[in-house]
Structure formats: structure tokens, C-alpha cells
Fold:
Amino acid sequence: MCGIIAAAGPLDLTAAVTALHHRGPDAAAVVQEDGVTLGHTRLAIQDPGARSDQPYRDGPVTLVYNGELFNANDVVDLVEVADPTRAWSTTGDTEVVAAALNVLGPEQALPALDGMYGLVWTDARRPGVLHVARDRHGEIPLHVHRGAPLLVASELKAFRALGRRCGKAVVDVEPGEWWELTPAGSIRRHVYHRLTAAPAPELTRETAAPALRRALARSVYRRLVADVPVCALLSGGIDSAAIVHELARHRPGLTCYTARLDPRSTDLRCARETADRLGVTLVEVPVKPPTADDLTHALAVIEQPYKAQVEITWPCLALAAAIHADGFKVTYSGEGSDELWASYGFAYRGIAEHGWYGYRRDLIAAQAVRNFPRVNKAFMAHSVEGRLPFLDPDLVRLALSMPMDVVRDADTPAGRKAVLQAAYADALPASVIRRGKVAFQDGLGLKPAITHALPTPMRYYRAEHSRLYG
Structure:
């Protein structure tokens, strides 16, 4: 995981690279290639030595890359078929991505990448063009500033460091898209992936539950790749508990982190029970009730004005700080699960209007500007990469294909994840299996503290976001 800043033209990006230091404290560099400027800050996770530092050159391609590739061996095979003389210089995924863009071209390379990423590259065969791409679910933020010259960055802070106001001048690269930016200011968009929901009416609870467990097990296994220590979040809900169950099979002595604000909270009790059942170490991170200034800081970190996102960020910052202080660079989170099952209380309106399959597809897609970049920015504020196993492409495809009566027992909090509950009924504490969906802020006991600090939080967040990033 890293930080990216790039310009579709020659530009001094030093201040922007400094503004993204938290995203990549291990190395930083800026180069001008083929009429564009590429800047990078590195959080070294795969092949952490200097040979994988960026910007990374592979023939005519120069790449800055933020993210992780989870199917590097498959991509290596594709490259070697196209170029049997290919020799590899590193053991990291940066070279694999750069080689794929060079040898296969973006049209073939991007659909082959299974990972979370924001990519920016230049190709000497098309000088002056800045290429940008975002992963299929939008796990990694990638913003484009439409000023002159066009800029691309992992966070809005990089634009502000260059004296750029944001507001309507900024657009996000869409998930599953590859854009070409020119010095003249034009943007040409290409789609390499679109999220779909293909119903599988033949599925039953009895067949879907074990299939889901196998899919999550594969997803976690694919996401184990790292040359640094990893840990996990354990909130007390079934999503993080299922991930920790799968992780603990491969990482003996796994350390997990949970937030503690109200010592009597159900979340905390369930997290402790899960840790005991799975034999993992649980670190309880104290979270203090936030002040208005604290919530402004949370908003500034994630660069969003949305109430739920800002308030969830406050305890996540405490978790990220503790994880970083303990020497971990990677953690795992259950984000994405609630969207797959439409387990939010408000979901019934969307299901009624858009249908069971279409609503969940759209709900996942909508998180490319909400939940997913919030996870990324909150944890990267302390140089920690967040991985989301529920967004594995195979798992997403399976989940979105499930009929509603397979996923749910009833439209009640305890029945909205019945298929996931059935999948892990023998592996997790009964108290966790039986729990319904509870908002993180509620489970932690955070909402009363925020109400005390901010009588009108939504108005406050909009005003602060406009002040900081308008």
C-alpha cells in the first residue's frame, strides 16, 4: 500500500509527496517520464527491499502503484506466455503489474488482475498520456483533479498541498475503469469490468452455506501474501469473526484488535468470546469520547462529509495507531459483508424499489466513494493497509447470485445474514452467530458521546468538509 501523486505534464510534486508521507513512510521518489510527472510514497509489504521501490520501470512503462495483487502467479504465467524470454528481477507484485501493462497492454492486463489497487503509469509508446486505473470494486481511492495540468492522487491532501482547491474540480476514477489523461486536459474512459448480479435460483441454504465458507476461506488464503507481520480486526460481529477464524488456520498466534469505549458493550463481550473460542490474542484499544475537534480530524483524514463514515473513523484511528505502534503493517476487516447481504435496516426500501439482486449490486458499487476509501484512508493515516476478504471477486459473484430466501430467514436484524450464520455455526460462539446487524457506532457505545459533542452532526460535517476540501 502506498501513496500516489501524478501530473499530466511537468510539475514540481515535492509538497504533494510530503503530504502523503503517512501512506508510505518507507520510500519516496518523483520522476518525469514521457512528458508527465509521477510521485510515489511506499509502504513496503511485498519484497520490501529497495529493488521494488517506485516509480518502477519495465521497458517503456513507468508505474506508480498503490495496492496489492493477490493472483501474481496467474499474471506471471500470462506474461511469460506472451514473452517466453521474460526474466524477473524482484519477488514483489509491482514488477508483475508493470510487466503485465508492458507486455499485455491494459486491455488484457487489467481484467486479469485480482487485487485492490490504484494504478498510474506512462508508456513511452504513447508519450504525454497519463494512464490511471482503479480496482474492480473501488477498494483503493484514486482522485482526479481537472485543473491544468490534470492531477491524480490517492488523497485530496496532495491536491491541497499544491495549492489546488477541490470541490467540483475533483472526480473519482470509477471502479473497473482505466482512464487516459492528456496534457490538453481531456479524459478518455475505458471500462474493463462492471459489477453484475446473475441470479442462481438453484441455490439452497444447504448448498450455499458451505459454498460461502469455502469462498471466504479461499479469499483469506489469497490475501495472506505479505513479507511483513499481519493482524486482524475483531469487532464482535460475525463478519470479522469469520475472517479471523480463517486467518487463524494459517497464522498461529494471530493478534486481533478491538475498540473499547463502553466496557459493558455487547461488541466487546462478543469479541472476547470469539478470541477465546479461536485461540487468538485480543488487544483492547481504549477509545475516548470524541470532541468536535476530534471529529473534524476524523473527517480531514477520510475527506468525506458522510455522518456514518466520519463517526466510524474515530475509533478506527485509535485502532490504526495501536496496530502501527505494535509493528503491524497489514490488517483484515469485514467491510463489504453488510452490502452483500443487504443487512442494513434501511435496505428494505432499496430492495422494494430496485429488486433483491440489483439493489445489492448497486449497494456494493456505491461504497467506492464511502466505506471502502474510508477504510483505506483511516488505516493508512497510520501506515496500515486494510484488506477486505469479503470483496474477493469469486465471493462477491457467489453472494450476489444467492436468492433472498437463501440469504435471509426474515427481515429482522437476527435473520438478515442467515446464510453466513449457517456457514460458521460450528466454528464461532453461539452469541456471535445469533447476533443481528448492529451499527459499529451503536455496538461500541459511541453514539451518545457524539450526540453530546455535536447537537447537529450532519450540518457540522458538511460545513467542515466544505471548509477543508471545498
About this structure: The longest helix spans residues 307-325. The chain is about 40% helix and 20% strand. The radius of gyration is 22 Å. The first strand starts at residue 2 and ends at 7.
